[in-house]
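Lecture 7 notes: from sequence to structure.
We start with the chain below.
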Amino acid sequence: MTGGSLLDPVPALTADVDAIALRDPLFISDLHLSEAQPATLERFLRFAREVAATHSELVILGDLFEYWAGDDDLDPGIGRPVADALRALAEQGVAVFLMHGNRDLLLGRGFAEAARATLLGDPTRATLPDGTVLLAHGDTYCTRDADYQRFRAQVRDPDWQRGFLARSLGERRAFIGAARAASESVRKAKPMDIMDVTPEAIDAALHAAGLATMIHGHTHRPAVHRWTLDGRAAERWVLPDWDFDATPTRGGYLVLERAGRAILTLHG
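Predicted structure tokens for the same chain:
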């Protein structure tokens, strides 16, 4: 891919499915992989070889990368080793599912084919051995952050993505760098609760789907939340972000144990 065209599917239009069946999945999100985080990259590559390879499916719920300028940015430093690791899993029989996050929303068909990954819509229904859950990145439910929601709508618009991907790779990288710096400055000035999901938005999404369980990332606040929705027990599992270059380190994943029990495994 060397730039967008009106005939090429842009990332906003490339989701393969919005419903999947899973037997023995691992769920991860918010790894924010980049060349600036070598220990985190190495931890992910080891995780893929030693942990994900022992399961039937690996489900990545967004922000696999810190940023993604387009599939022509599949460089040997970060994009290629990650794609190769996911492809190796697929060749061993592990189904790899990938959802866009807010940092890597320009991941497209090129990366998915290189990684042999299936692109998920946001949200996606996942049928598990003991029931069905709703999978999401999570940022769409941060409805109190009106500025972010306007930005999110803009950058996920197919026409905006076509125009952006038609720029040179250098221009795209420069734009993303400036946008990340501006976002970090704004984020520090916002109340923390604005950047978390809105409970009413979670309720509405689950109610519309007819489900009572959601798994998502984005907020970097790993936890399990339980409440009553539509007269039945509801659960929301929040995945951790990864950073093994920081002190203390952090990361983890959600795994299903026997009898359908979900275990949020955190690593430091």
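Points to note: The first strand starts at residue 17 and ends at 21. Residues 1-6 have pLDDT under 50 and may be disordered.
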